[in-house]
Design brief:
Endonuclease, Chain A; alpha+beta; 9-stranded mixed sheet
């Protein structure tokens, strides 16, 4: 038998590799990492289209009408947003629903949980729906368990990640709203921590955002969008991937939970009494309000919310204006923007500049693809205000859309939780409220134009000059990271 090269050179047989414990562990980790990467990424690489059934049910006339029993107001200031939530909870008599993508153990969240604890001790039924990723990271804190262990309080996690099932890491619940007694609701883009609520951190650590307060003036929910949101909540609450958060034995000692309950009871929010707010006087009439949502499953989603907004934009007669924190469109979304621009009506988008924005990955993608966005024909305004904007809203003719995605025409407007990116379009649960009626439209338009006054228009050559607004520069760490992340992010932009 011919000698191998090793034997020829050394004169000795080639040693056989031994399977040491360390080598076995390394091989196992390599196989697991490959399994995790494939499982976490592959199910989300293909983007489903919109089914014929959904397309067949679309009726633009359904977004207009005059049968709403709702009134609405914008809530823009972070301190007002926290104060409103605390007042709503303090006045609750029967039920509270709190849904949030991200809740963290911080001052504003402790205020809210203190008010919820007081409400539960009054006999109010409290249900909290929390995204499972945030719940996994933050949901074991003693203050959360102190509330969740009460008999009339239930906390559920949507799709808590499982390291043995890596496909559970990407489909997230991005909804954010509070409903009290089925008659009051605040909904928008704010998560439940100090970046968005209260005045506990410096301005540089805050984010601008939009909430909409909805007040139902009728004894029933037949013609209120609150009823639509409650029905959607029950669907997500009862689905198989939503499970009780406290079903596992506590890792905390009873003393730690008791101390946390005592800390909550010591906060001013626990003893807060209703201030007798006149919610009708705080709001303006709404002629029609409609809920738009994504599917609620944990895998790649049919982009129903984006598709409906796209149809409304393509049907606009006078103007479309979009406000979004980030712009990370898919090929289909770029094409959709181009079709709106081809109508020849004013079509504008307002988003964070990369200097001000707080989402490194989304800003990195925007730096790489800004020219492609401009090529669609949309007029792009970059926000250079004091700190990052997280607002999502839209105006389309006579509709106002509120949520995490923002649009404007001169009749329709929208507010909600939807960002103009691939994650909000294809991966996450999302919701937007579409409003018809001049009064609320005027409120939203005034806010967007006030913010636009601190924006610069973008061209291929740079920023167009504007009196009173100067582009901001950025230093470390952004200046160090962007040259790397803007290219590294491209193979994974379907997750942004």
């Amino acid at each position: 038998m011919a000698k191998n090269l090793y034997e020829t050179l050394t004169g000795a047989p080639k040693p056989r590799k031994r399977w040491t414990p360390l080598r076995i562990v390394r091989c196992f980790l390599l196989v697991y990492l490959l399994y995790f990467a494939v499982g976490a990424l592959l199910p989300f690489t293909l983007h489903p289209g919109v089914s014929a059934a959904v397309q067949g049910r679309f009726d633009p006339a359904a977004f207009r009408g005059s049968d709403s029993t709702d009134r609405a107001a914008l809530v823009l200031d972070n301190q007002d947003a926290l104060g409103l939530r605390l007042q709503m909870i303090a006045g609750a008599e029967e039920s509270i629903i709190l849904t949030s993508f991200d809740i963290r153990d911080c001052e504003s969240a402790r205020d809210i949980f203190a008010a919820l604890l007081a409400a539960s001790e009054r006999g109010v039924e409290v249900r909290i729906l929390w995204d499972g990723m945030s719940g996994m990271l933050h949901g074991r804190a003693p203050v959360f368990r102190a509330l969740g262990e009460r008999d009339n309080v239930e906390i559920r996690f949507y799709n808590e990640p499982n390291f043995l099932l890596p496909w559970t890491f990407n489909g997230r619940m991005h909804d954010k709203y509070l409903i009290v007694d089925g008659s009051l609701m605040v909904l928008g883009g704010r998560n439940t921590f100090d970046l968005f609520l209260g005045d506990y951190v410096p301005d540089s650590q805050k984010s601008h955002d939009n909430d909409v307060l909805v007040c139902n003036t009728a004894p029933t929910l037949e013609h209120s969008v609150i009823g639509q949101v409650e029905g959607y909540f029950e669907k997500v609450w009862d689905q198989p991937d939503t499970r009780p958060a406290l079903e596992r034995p506590p890792a905390l000692r009873a003393a730690a939970v008791a101390a946390a309950a005592g800390e909550l009871r010591a906060r001013p929010a626990y003893a807060l009494t209703p201030a007798g707010l006149d919610y009708e006087a705080m709001t303006v009439p709404v002629e029609k309000a409609t809920l738009l949502t994504n599917p609620t499953g944990i895998f790649a989603k049919e982009p129903t919310l984006w598709w409906h907004l796209q149809q409304l934009m393509e049907g606009a007669r006078d103007r479309v204006y979009l406000q979004t924190p980030y712009a990370v469109p898919s090929a289909a979304m770029y094409d959709g923007l181009a079709r709106v621009a081809e109508k020849g009506i004013p079509f504008e988008m307002q988003l964070n500049s990369v200097a001000v924005g707080d989402n490194l990955v989304a800003s990195s993608d925007y730096l790489t693809n800004r020219s492609r966005l401009l090529d669609t024909g949309v007029t792009v305004w970059e926000w250079f205000g004091d700190y990052s904007s997280h607002g999502k809203a839209a105006l389309i003719d006579d509709l106002a859309v509120v949520g995490s995605y923002n649009f404007i025409d001169d009749e329709l407007c929208a507010v909600g939780s939807y960002n103009f990116d691939l994650r909000s379009t294809y991966l996450d649960t999302e919701m937007m409220l579409v409003f018809y009626g001049d009064a609320f439209y005027d409120l939203l338009e005034a806010n967007l134009m006030e913010m636009e006054a601190q924006c610069l228009q973008v061209s291929e050559e740079g920023y167009l000059p504007r009196a009173g607004v100067e582009p901001k520069t950025y230093g470390p760490p952004k200046s160090i990271l962007y040259p790397v992340t803007r290219w590294l992010s491209q193979p994974f932009r379907f997750l942004i």
